[in-house]
Amino acid sequence: MKYLIALTIFGLTLAAGIHLLNNNPCFPRKNCTDFTTITDKFDLNTIQISGWIPWWKEDEAYTLIAAYPTKFTSISPMWFYVDVNYELEERGRSARPKTLASLEIKELGLELIPTLASDLTGDDLSVFLDPENGYAETFQQTLIAKLVELNVDGIDIDLEGIKSHNRNDFTLFLEKLRTLLVSRNLKLVVTVHAQTGNYDSEISKGQDLEEIAKLADEVRVMIYDRHGKFSDAGAIAPYDWMLQVLTHSLKKIPREKLVVGLPSYGYLWETSGVTHSFQYDEFTKYLVDNYDPGYYSHRRDPLSGELIYVSDSFHGWLSDSESILLKMKLAHSLGLTRFVIWSLGGMDVTLFDH
To answer: How far apart are CA 129 and CA 136, in angstroms?
Structure first.
């Protein structure tokens, strides 16, 4: 029933431009045509926008922030990783205090919440999170000292691919970390995989949304990669799947803590079997450098808002500013006002002109 209500709300909100699922004239896709979206009445000033900053795209991201400083609530540079020895590894720009001071992050009222990520496999994370091994406890002490040194506002925990049997270990990790953070007036933000409650991937089962929501100040749900390098060509975040994720998430996470993670990138599937993952600027450059404009066609997908590129040798899906706005509007129709974008560096910056 809640799912049908969500679909109804969404249909009313976008009635002038999009018809989805129920009595949907755009299904199958081959019967769809491009549509004119209605985004002019959607005021970005009524929502909160955060963004992840990959260490390999810092310059582009900081340029964006400098150009649109009032559009952001917080930023999360990916500075910290759990390395193969289960120790803290730092990545990205070394002159961080100088860089952040030049951007006037604190003066602008932006929260600085760096991200802790990992390239470890699920098996390696099992070793790290197992409390009997002691790695996590030692790691947390080092992490806290670094956060205090950098004078940040908190930490975003983005550990992906946790095994289902480490579900409780991860919750315990967050419990202990929260205690250390609270005593220093620092925030705990946790990034989680998208879940629908039905046929979710194994990588999401190590995250207990209800327990995480009790501990975290914010829970960022990554609502993207419905399709990717691991699949056939398709939308990065189709509306129907997005609604399922949001509906399920709202059962587990208080509305005021839920932050909607949205994509700013694309995939290009070649018929040769190679799949490319491109940020917006990289996607458009790849097309310019490799193909004549007459070689491919493109249109906007009514079921995701994303741009579809088609030729004899590839299919591509790209999330541009309009796609992001439409997804924000969908989430906003459900009473959600907080968003985080993966990622700021190289995205379609015209989003912030609205």
So the answer is: 6
pLDDT tens-digit series, residues 206-224: 999 999 999 999 999 999 9
- Considering Cα of 330, then 257, then 221, then 7, what sign does the dihedral take? negative
Segments making up each domain of the chain, as ranges:
2-353
Q: How far is CA 327 from CA 51, 66, 72, 258, 335, in A?
A: 15, 25, 18, 15, 13
Among 313, 265, 320, smallest CA distance to 290 is for 313
Which residue, chain included where needed, has tokens 């541009």?
320
- Rounded Cα distance between 113 and 95, Å, is 17
| Backbone region of residue 187 per phi and psi (left: phi > 0; alpha: psi in -120 to 50; beta: other values) | beta
Give residues with Cβ within 8 angstroms of 183, minimum separation 6.
none
- 166-212 residue pLDDT tens: 999 999 999 999 999 999 999 999 999 999 999 788 889 999 999 99
Residue written as tokens 């509007």?
329
Tell me the C-alpha distance between 209 and 193, whole Å. 10
Question: What is the biggest distance separating any 2 CA atoms in the chain, rounded to whole angstroms?
Answer: 61
Contacts of 354 (CB under 8 A, 6+ apart): 39, 40, 42, 44, 321, 325
254 within 8 A of 212, measured Cβ to Cβ: no
Local structure of 123: helix, strand or coil: helix
- Give the pTM: 0.88
Question: What CATH number is given for 2-353 in this structure?
Answer: 3.20.20.80
